[in-house]
UniProtKB/TrEMBL annotation:
This is Peptidase M20 domain-containing protein 2. Coiled coil: none annotated. Belongs to the peptidase M20A family. Residues 172-263 form the Peptidase M20 dimerisation domain.
Length: 390
């Protein structure tokens, strides 16, 4: 079994299987799959983990592109969380190929300590983080809840260990009016595009009254078919963000009323439909974060980037919902590419190559070392010191 030897006294290190992790990451990057469509990614992840002795369950909990892999049979359970969905039109511009490689690599690196630390090492691969709320649906189906610690790391322009994501609601908007010839019979139409314009103006005016720490943004995906036809149907996708779930719902109600205003003004019908359950704010396990941060510094990671460069740690994630049920961390690990940032084509390009390979090596090693110290026996006292008597 590759790399399974127990290195007594050593710390976990992912560099021994780095070439395999890089190949896996680059394969995911070259074949991006969007939310709920990650069939090849799930298969390649299963193949990787089976190579290293993990017992793998595909179509986990009935989700075709989720999987669960485990190594060991200990009473304590650490979970490394994989994401591998890509962005429509942008590929892996959020770097989920690197998330997958770091989490899988950390689990592989930790295997030699599973029996000694009474651990079961889990990898849980999750679909549809980019707006689909895959982890939330998996939580509802019973995933994650038996973990003693859940770990993952996310690529970013610079290192930012503490996750502080917004809670977010994702909504699909559809206006339905009545088509008509725009020159000959405009009075017979009900303009669904005008409804969207009214709503956008209302949202723009609303922003002046929004409290700090909120975000409202979205896109129109359907705007009509021909310039000489009154648009019968328009559609869009809209995100509302706030500091907490408790603050999110009142704000979302105000956003919905802006769309209702568009429908009222144009005599069209509105459908305002959630695309997923809302993503939560994050609850950080402070002990795990302290361990991760200390090892990151020891590994040479720079954690002192200016605050304005670290704001990827505000990005929403369905890992926040997991953190409400089990201890968790979600550090951001830097590619050193600022001002290029996530969800840009340049960031997708940065997620392969030398900097990406270092992120895989460091991220996988740091997650494994965090779990190693979190679950391991207390460190030996320094030489010459006598342990305190209890």
């Amino acid at each position: 079994m590759p790399g399974a030897a127990d290195r007594s006294g050593a710390l976990p290190d992912a560099t021994g299987h780095l070439d395999r992790l890089i190949a896996y990451s680059e394969t995911l990057h070259a074949h991006p799959e969007t939310a709920w469509e990650e069939h090849r990614a799930a298969r390649w992840t299963a193949e990787l983990l089976e190579e290293f002795g993990f017992a793998v369950r595909t179509s986990y909990l009935g989700f075709p592109t989720a999987l669960h892999a485990s190594y060991g049979s200990g009473r304590r359970r650490v979970g490394f969380i994989v994401e591998y969905d890509a962005l429509p039109g942008l590929g892996h511009a959020c770097g989920h190929n690197l998330i997958a490689a770091m989490s899988a690599g950390a689990a592989i690196a930790l295997r030699p300590w599973a029996e000694r630390f009474d651990l079961r090492v889990d990898v849980i691969a999750t679909p549809a983080e980019e707006g689909g709320g895959g982890k939330i649906e998996m939580l509802d189906a019973g995933a994650f809840r038996d973990l003693d610690l859940a770990l993952m790391a996310h690529p970013a322009p610079v290192d930012a260990p503490r996750a502080e994501p917004y809670a977010v609601a994702h909504d699909h908007v559809r206006f339905t009016g009545r088509a008509a010839h725009a020159a000959a019979y405009p009075h017979e139409g009900r303009n669904a595009n005008d409804a969207f314009v009214v709503a956008q103006v209302a949202l723009g005016l609303l922003r002046q009254q929004l409290p700090p720490g909120t975000r409202v943004h979205g896109i129109q995906t359907v705007g009509g078919q021909a310039p000489n036809a009154i648009p019968e149907v328009t559609e869009g996708r809209w995100y509302t963000r706030a500091e907490t779930l408790a603050e999110l719902e009142p704000l979302r109600d105000r956003v919905r009323r802006c769309f209702e205003a568009g429908a009222l003004a144009t005599d069209t019908a509105l459908e305002f439909t959630p695309e997923s359950q809302s993503y939560s704010e994050f609850r950080t396990d402070e002990r795990a974060l302290e361990i991760y941060t200390r090892h990151a510094r020891a590994l040479g990671r720079r954690l002192d980037a200016p605050a304005e460069q670290q704001t990827m740690n505000r990005a929403s994630t369905d890992m926040g919902n997991v953190s409400r049920h089990v201890p968790a961390i979600h550090p951001y690990i830097g590619l050193g590419c600022f001002p290029v940032s996530n969800h840009q084509p340049g960031f997708a390009a940065a997620c392969v190559g030398e900097a990406a390979n270092r992120v895989i090596a460091d991220g996988a090693t740091l997650l494994a070392r965090t779990a190693h110290e979190y679950f391991g026996p207390p460190a030996d006292p320094p030489p010459g010191r006598v342990p305190a008597q209890v």
